[in-house]
UniProtKB/TrEMBL annotation:
Gene designation: gshA
Protein name: Glutamate--cysteine ligase
Family membership noted in the UniProt record: Belongs to the glutamate--cysteine ligase type 1 family. Type 1 subfamily.
GO biological process: glutathione biosynthetic process
Annotated source species: Pseudomonas deceptionensis
Cellular component aspect of the GO annotation: cytosol
Cleaved signal peptide residues: none
């Protein structure tokens, strides 16, 4: 263990600092498709009873009108975060009629591209901006890829923790700079070790055969309707032939916040010839927000993002540049199709220990070879993480994946113990033991369990997923929310619809001007 990590552990173990770790915040965003009873994509509009997708801060849509997104508040105890997520699911099910929430990350059998409905947010300028952005995504990457769902885990260390570390380490600069540097260092370590999360939590080894729309691929046929890779952990996070050529040159290596925001700012302002050829309008209608590498910064696909809560009308990069990093958004987690809300408490507890390790462990800056090996290690594990004897690259040499995984868990153990010391109990250490069991026995991984369950029931991917979706529907519907909780969700939904209507009625200024000033806002930022 590095000296830096030892010093930081000792400092945070002191009685005056120990309670700090109780103030970490956790938020979860869970995406899921609405499907019909015959496992087809629901073609119905976003249910009005769930409120406005534009203004309801807990229930919205992601890419498609059929792709729901549930958002919890950021809470100090992940048990509370998961309880909040559970309630959102129960409320949704009270309004879904005969539709279901699709249990895994990879989509149900999809209709033709043109029949996948893009999410609609009404006639306000911001609503139209969200809609045109999604039209641009369809144009650039196809609609099929946008129907993949995942879980985003938002995590922050308490603001009061950074000055303690900063003072002990004699950092010269502002608290904001120290905090941003520390989060960027966390992200570098996350890039180094995130392959481990794909082995432990990857749950998409198979997918519906129609998903690839006849494109060439390296997948194997499991049955007439299912494609898979025998040792895959997460096809969702693999390249699957969907590499964005435009984004290929965009690899922020997270050596500091400035270079990260700068690379995204340039991408949002740099034209990309194939998009220029298409233009922003077709037959007088907007088809994409601009013809640049990225329409907006959120278009950049990454496994983890530095984040800061934005003010109304503010762009993510503006918030980061002006106020620094506030939390990280972990974006690579598959939905576990065996769990009703797609994630459980042991996974959350382990993620906390893993992220704390990434934050406190030494994190040297990347050089190009290391940046490349992080990417290739990650892709090896998503495609063949359960292959016996799989080798990864570490410091330019081959290393056995299982050996490295066990070593990492040993290094994370003191962080789990520190969290337990802070919170009382032993839940973090137990969560770590659960992960060690998966390293020793590959059949305990979610990806192995998915394939085993399909084999046991002689099911295709779609049949397995629908069976799980029905079981989860039963789970949520058998125990409705308390009348108070139900009423609170209904009131939130009603208010959100009113808020959208008010925005649409009182708005001034036309959409073209709105887009122009939105584009200009990014160009105005200078580091």
């Amino acid at each position: 263990m590095s000296q830096l990590l030892n010093r930081r552990l000792a400092l945070l173990s002191e009685r005056t600092n120990l309670t700090l770790l109780e103030q970490c915040l956790h938020g979860i965003e869970r995406e899921c498709l609405r499907v019909t009873a015959d496992a087809r994509l629901a073609q119905t509009p976003h249910p009005e009873e769930l409120g406005s997708a534009l203004t309801n801060d807990q229930i919205t849509t992601d890419y498609s009108e059929s792709l729901l997104e549930f958002i919890t508040p950021a809470l100090p105890d992940p048990a509370e975060t998961l309880a909040s997520l559970d309630k959102i699911h129960r409320f949704a099910y009270s309004k879904l009629g005969n539709e279901f929430l699709w249990s895994p990350s990879m989509p149900c059998p999809l209709p033709a591209e043109e029949d996948i409905p893009i999410a609609y947010y009404g006639t306000s300028n911001i609503g139209q901006l969200k809609y045109v952005y999604r039209k641009g995504l369809a144009l650039r990457y196809g609609k099929t890829m946008q129907c993949i769902a995942g879980i985003h885990y938002n995590f922050s260390l308490p603001e009061a923790l950074w000055p303690v570390l900063m003072q002990a380490e004699g950092f010269v600069g502002t608290e904001r700079d120290y905090q941003s540097n520390a989060y960027i260092a966390l992200i570098r370590n996350f890039r180094r070790y995130s392959w481990l999360l794909m082995y432990l939590f990857g749950a998409s080894p198979a997918l519906d055969a129609g998903f690839l729309r006849g494109r060439s691929h390296q997948l194997e046929q499991l049955d007439a309707d299912t494609l898979y890779l025998p040792y895959a952990t997460s096809l969702r996070m693999s390249d699957l032939g969907y590499q964005s050529n435009a984004q290929a040159g965009l690899t922020p290596c997270y050596n500091d916040l400035d270079s990260y925001t700068d690379s995204l700012r340039k991408a949002v302002a740099t034209p990309y010839a194939p998009y220029v050829e298409i233009g922003t309008h077709k037959d007088g209608e907007w088809v994409q927000l601009n013809t640049n590498i990225l329409q907006i910064e959120n278009e950049y696909y990454s496994n983890i993002r530095p984040k800061r809560v934005t003010y109304t009308g503010e762009r993510p990069i503006q918030a980061l540049v002006s106020r620094g990093v506030q939390y990280v958004e972990v974006r690579l987690l598959d939905i576990n199709p065996f769990l009703p809300v797609g994630i459980d408490l042991p996974e959350a507890r382990f993620l906390d220990a893993f992220l704390l390790y990434c934050a406190l462990q030494e994190s040297p800056q990347f050089d190009s070879p290391e940046c490349g090996s992080c990417t290739s290690n990650f892709l090896s594990v998503v495609k063949e993480g359960r292959r016996p004897g799989l080798q990864l690259q570490r410091d330019g040499a081959a290393v056995d994946m299982k050996e490295w995984a066990a070593e990492l868990l040993e290094k994370i153990a003191p962080l789990a113990a520190l969290l337990d010391q802070s919170h009382g109990g032993d839940t973090h250490s137990k969560a770590l033991d659960d992960q060690l069991a998966k390293i020793r026995d590959v059949s305990l991984t979610p990806s192995a369990k998915v394939l085993a369950s399909m084999a046991e029931h002689k099911e295709s991917f779609a049949q397995f997923s629908m069976r799980q979706s029905q079981a989860h529907a039963e789970f949520f519907r058998s125990e409705p929310l308390s009348p108070e909780d139900q009423a609170a969700f209904e009131e939130k939904a009603r208010k959100s619809l009113l808020e959208q209507a008010q925005t649409e009625q009182t708005e001034e200024g036309d959409f073209d001007l709105f887009v122009a000033s939105y584009q200009a806002s990014i160009l105005a930022i200078s580091n």
